[in-house]
C-alpha cells in the first residue's frame, strides 16, 4: 500500500511549521548534490590555470560551500540545525564546454536528512566562483542545481536516474 505523499512543513491549518523530529531515530544519513557553471573560454582558462587576480578560486569556493552547509538552518527558515560529520566539495572541469561541475557530499548521524545542506553547499560554492570572476565575465551561468542522491532515514535511499 502506498502512503499518500504530503508536504511536511505545514500544520493542519496550512501554516508554515518546523517538522517535529523528536520521536525519530538517529541514523547515518548522506546527501550528494551538484550544479554547473558555464563561462567564456577566457574565464574558464583563468580559473583553471589559477591566474585570476583574486587568488585560489577553488580553495575559496570550497571553504564557502562548507561554511554555507553548516549555516543552512540560518538561511532556510524551517531547516533544523545539524551537527554535520562530513562536508566535501569537489570540482570537475569540462574543457570542451568551458564549464565547472561542483559536487558536494554531506554526512551525519542524526534524526533528519541533510539534502538542503548539500544543495546549499554547491549553490554557495557556485556563487563564490561567480563573485570572484564577475569582473571578467558577467555572463557566467549557474545551472542544473540538483540532489544526486540521499540515504538514511525512514524514506530510505533516493538516487537520481
Task: Write up what this structure looks like.
With 161 residues, the protein is an alpha+beta fold. The protein has a single domain (27-154), classed as 2-Layer Sandwich (Alpha-Beta Plaits). Helix content is 29%, strand content 29%. The protein has 4 helices and 5 strands; from the N terminus they run E-H-H-H-E-E-H-E-E. It has helices spanning 41-49, 57-70, 72-75, 115-133, and strands at 27-38, 86-94, 99-110, 141-151, 158-159. A 5-stranded antiparallel beta sheet has the order 2-3-1-4-5, with helices on one face. A hairpin with a 4-residue loop joins strand 2 (86-94) and strand 3. The longest helix has 19 residues, at 115-133. It is elongated and about 55 Å long. The model has no long low-confidence stretch (mean pLDDT 93).
Order of helix and strand elements from N to C terminus: EHHHEEHEE
Computed over alpha carbons, the radius of gyration is 18 Å
| CATH class (first level) name | Alpha Beta
Task: Report low-confidence residues grouped into runs of 5 or more.
Answer: none
Amino acid at each position: 500500500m502506498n502512503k499518500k505523499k504530503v508536504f511536511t512543513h505545514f500544520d493542519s491549518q496550512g501554516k508554515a511549521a518546523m517538522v517535529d523530529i523528536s520521536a525519530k531515530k538517529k541514523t547515518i544519513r548522506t546527501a550528494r548534490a551538484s550544479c554547473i557553471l558555464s563561462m567564456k573560454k577566457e574565464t574558464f582558462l583563468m580559473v583553471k590555470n589559477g591566474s585570476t587576480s583574486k587568488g585560489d578560486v577553488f580553495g575559496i569556493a570550497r571553504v564557502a560551500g562548507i561554511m554555507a552547509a553548516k549555516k543552512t538552518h540560518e538561511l532556510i527558515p524551517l531547516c533544523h540545525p545539524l551537527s554535520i560529520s562530513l562536508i566535501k566539495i569537489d570540482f570537475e572541469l569540462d574543457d570542451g564546454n568551458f564549464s565547472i561541475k561542483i559536487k558536494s557530499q554531506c554526512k551525519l548521524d542524526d534524526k533528519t536528512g541533510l539534502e538542503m545542506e548539500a544543495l546549499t553547499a554547491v549553490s554557495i560554492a557556485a556563487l563564490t566562483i561567480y563573485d570572484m570572476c564577475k569582473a571578467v565575465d558577467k555572463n557566467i551561468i549557474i545551472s542544473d542545481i540538483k540532489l544526486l542522491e540521499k540515504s538514511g532515514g525512514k524514506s530510505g535511499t533516493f538516487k537520481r536516474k
